[in-house]
Design brief:
Organism: Devosia elaeis
Shape: globular
Strand content: 15-25%
Number of helices: 16
Keywords: FAD, Flavoprotein
Strand order of the largest sheet: 5-6-10-8-9
Family: Belongs to the FAD-binding oxidoreductase/transferase type 4 family.
Bound molecules: flavin-adenine dinucleotide
Helix content: 25-40%
InterPro entries: FAD-bd_oxidored_4_C (IPR004113), FAD-bd_PCMH (IPR016166), FAD-bd_PCMH-like_sf (IPR036318), FAD-bd_PCMH_sub1 (IPR016167), FAD-bd_PCMH_sub2 (IPR016169), FAD-linked_Oxase-like_C (IPR016164), FAD-oxidored/transferase_4 (IPR051264), Oxid_FAD_bind_N (IPR006094)
CATH architecture of one domain: 2-Layer Sandwich
Largest sheet: 5 strands, antiparallel
Number of strands: 19
CATH topology of one domain: Uridine Diphospho-n-acetylenolpyruvylglucosamine Reductase, domain 3
Structural class: alpha+beta
Protein name: Hydroxyacid dehydrogenase
């Protein structure tokens, strides 16, 4: 695979027009700079096709010329999957395919193009009285194609599922430029392999999603939100059981946050006021949806029961939209706040929900033994068994020296605990470039063979997102 960059730029310009091609590396910043700031290879070109036919033309050309294509949406992925691995690859950005083709609130389906920004999709369906229930802190930039290709989760997976569960069908351009039209809106379709499920979560290695039909839900009348004080992850697990018994599928979110997260955010003035009732070693952010025609008060009465059962020691309920926004800001800023305290070592892992307390206890103890003074910051989607198990450097340590000495060792400790508990080393962020070697080590060998066979069948020349996921 290697055509000179100038030939690539000329060929692409001839195919889709010079306005849709960037060949000057100095103008590629927005497409190259990824959130982790770990991967820095410039592309031979960035192409922004204006329609599906242009995506097909680019893929037909890339297939004939063996040029690696890196599909990109909002460039918010956290594993380096959306940026090049080599300088002769082309970034294909879907940003210009950003039309919402249809919204049918009554039938509960929208068809959105891959470049639609997630937040714009939210607004468009809300204007029609419906809801697309996939919320991420990156939703102002993340695009539908990227969200689906990374099978993103977020804060409402508990009630509505991740991206795969919210997808009814996809339209995609294959490696050789053929168009797969799978944009159905069927709840039931047993006509063979589920190709949409294959393309969702494929990180752009099997095809380029150009549009998707997505499930919509009725817009809730309101939300009931609280931040509660809990003594331990064990108590959080029991409280989660109680909340599920009481609220069933109306339990929208159950997020775990350690005290250190509050401490860091208050010290760095990231919150305009303390959103919690009082000091506590752990907090749970709990949210219930309230549908039209139902009375408020379910969360209040569930929390009273939890208080009587001594599962919680204190709580504060959101009384206004501003309260709710502040509580969610506290949760959403958990990742960012660690950067204010120097370097941190991060893991996006999941275990069976009942094993979350053991994950946190055993993982923290083992890492603290190995790195004296390190600060565990485990937080996240407790209700999905998905913990962002992060560690902030010891106070006063040199960030670079800390990462150089401990990054690998801490990963090894945490992944050992995760695997022992029957968990996953990538819960919602994917594999990308970051975890290619890890996947080879931990994935069932037969599963890896099946994945390679699928990749070879759909992309025999290996031009779709080369080197990502399977290496
Ligand atoms: C602040 C922040 C918070 C986040 N929170 C969460 C969270 O709560 N839960 C969660 O799951 N993730 C979260 N993420 C990561 C999440 O994966 C991304 O935000 C989002 O899903 C990716 O969308 P994107 O459009 O930016 O995709 P990109 O980053 O552009 O791409 C992601 C992957 O999809 C591929 N791709 C992109 N578009 C297409 C397409 N049209 N066809 C085929 N392949 C394509 C890329 O090649 C790459 O493999 C967060 C990220 C940030 C920065």
């Amino acid at each position: 695979m290697s055509l000179p960059a100038n030939e690539i730029v000329s060929a692409l310009s001839a195919l889709v027009g010079g306005d849709n091609v960037v060949g000057d590396v100095a103008r590629m910043g927005a497409w190259l700079s990824e959130p982790r700031k770990r991967f820095h290879i410039a592309a031979a070109a960035v192409v922004t096709p204006p329609d599906v036919a242009a995506v097909q033309a680019v893929m037909r050309w890339a297939h004939e010329n063996n040029v690696g294509i890196v599909p990109q949406g909002g460039n918010t992925g956290l594993v380096g999957a959306q940026v090049p691995r080599r300088g002769d690859e082309v970034i294909l950005s879907l940003q210009k395919l950003d039309r919402i083709r249809s919204i049918d609130a009554a039938a509960g389906v929208m068809v959105a193009e891959a470049g639609t920004i997630l937040e714009n999709a939210h607004r468009a369906v809300e204007a029609e009285g419906a809801m697309f229930p996939l919320w991420l802190a990156s939703q102002g930039s993340a695009r539908i194609g990227g969200v689906l290709s990374s099978n993103a989760g977020g804060v409402n997976v508990l009630a509505y599922g991740n991206a795969r569960e919210l997808t009814m069908g996809v339209e995609a351009v294959l490696a050789d430029g053929r168009l797969y039209n799978g944009l159905n809106a069927l709840k039931k379709d047993n006509t063979g392999y589920d190709l949409k499920d294959l393309l969702v979560g494929a990180e752009g290695t099997l095809g380029i999603i150009t549009a998707a039909s997505l499930k919509l839900y009725p817009l809730p009348e309101d939300y009931e939100t609280a931040l509660v004080n809990i003594a331990s992850p064990e108590a959080a697990f029991e409280l989660f059981g109680l909340m599920r018994e009481r609220a069933g599928s109306r339990l929208n979110a159950f997020e775990l946050i350690p005290w250190i997260g509050l401490d860091i955010q208050l010290r760095h003035q990231m919150l305009d006021a303390d959103p919690t009732a009082s000091a506590s070693p752990w907090y749970a952010l709990i949210e219930l949806t309230r549908m039209a025609g139902t009375a408020p008060g379910s969360l209040q009465s569930a929390l009273e029961a939890a208080f009587e059962a001594t599962l919680i020691s204190d709580a504060t309920m959101a009384e206004s939209l501003a309260d709710r926004t502040r509580m969610w800001a506290f949760r959403e800023q958990m990742s960012e706040c660690q950067s204010r305290e120097g370097a941190s070592i991060k893991h996006d892992v999941s275990v069976p929900i009942a094993a979350v307390p053991r994950l946190i206890a055993e993982g923290s103890a083992a890492v603290e033994k190995r790195v004296p003074g390190i600060r565990p910051v485990p937080f996240g989607h407790m209700g999905d068994g998905n913990i962002h198990f992060n560690f902030s450097q010891p106070v006063g340590a040199d960030p670079k020296a800390f990462m150089a000495e401990y990054d690998e060792a801490v990963h090894e400790i945490i992944y050992d605990v995760v695997l022992k508990l029957g968990g996953s080393v990538s819960a919602e962020h994917g594999i990308g470039q970051l975890k290619v070697d890890l996947l080879k080590q931990v994935k069932d060998p037969v599963a890896l063979e099946m994945m390679r066979a699928i990749k070879n069948a759909l992309d025999p020349k290996g031009i779709l997102n080369p080197g990502k996921m399977l290496g």
